[in-house]
DNA sequence: TAGGTTTGTTTCAAACTTGAACCAAGCCCC
DNA sequence: GGGGCTTGGTTCAAGTTTGAAACAAACCTA
């Protein structure tokens, strides 16, 4: 089939998107590196753990939630563990499993740096959009994310809150 | 001042955005790694050069266009040079300058892989959006990019097409 | 229940990115 | 016309990411 090139409008949208993503991620990384001594992804790991009832999540679930590879997560958690911000527990029910937990120190770092982070997100993104655009943003990227179902994501939510994927739980 | 936390809607938008960006970039990187043997950024370097009348651009301008650091670009161009896809020329007017040029081989790789790339971009993004949403996407990220003016971007377009920043040209 | 497959996680080497430092080369101005 | 500042680019070390391979435990199934 002959290529369906992007229309001029699509091209403009694509370019604006690509440029913005780069700029926003860089700004976010720099801000968090400054304030929290870690890049955005690492902060997100802490944040994700903190939102869980017990502040723990299995590696695979955490990786899936953050849309990153397990190997990338392993590396990141190892670093955060060295910094004392997260810990690892063995999963009692599935001896293969490893559970990342947010430590008290990790929680403190998060609480200390969250306001600055949110402020940055606002400055970079939300402050520049109208309320309608915020809604549009949500719809657009919800649609985009949904395009990936099956490759990842799976059903979700399970009996044990920090264990969201397959039917089994642990710890 | 007390932190302006994100509203539930803003949070949903932010999360959907973050997740989508990760998924889209990963998919794009994988696709291009497969078809072109290089990650998305490297492909973008070739693409950007190809859109220039003479298929050459000064390093700084290229970096600015792509919103990346000069050092990152230096590394990338060095790799692409090894692969024979881009070359470096000295700038005759400003002896400090270095000009990246797209080679014939580079152009061929681009032409061969562009259709697959565009198809992927469609599959990941545009095929999932309504025409109105494409327009919204453009407006949203144009607004976001504009938030960075002054930190980068500068005036643009100059007398010599592949030299877009300061008043001088070369080669 | 042994053997084979799948799943959860880590490991390893190679590739890439970051930021600070460095080296020229242009510029400015007294 | 010789400092001193700025700009264009590269280099270097440290940190991060990638993808494939390695392992181990769990899960079939004959």
TrEMBL record, chains A, B:
HTH marR-type domain mapped to chain residues: 1-146
Cite the PROSITE patterns for this sequence: HTH_MARR_2
Gene3D superfamilies xrefs? Winged helix-like DNA-binding domain superfamily/Winged helix DNA-binding domain (1.10.10.10)
Q: Where is this region: Disordered?
A: 148-171
GO biological process: any one? response to stress
Q: Which InterPro entries does the protein's record reference?
A: HTH_MarR-typ (IPR000835), MarR/SlyA-like (IPR039422), WH-like_DNA-bd_sf (IPR036388), WH_DNA-bd_sf (IPR036390)
* Residue spans of biased composition, Basic and acidic residues class: 151-162
UniProt GO molecular function: DNA-binding transcription factor activity
Official protein name in the record = MarR family transcriptional regulator
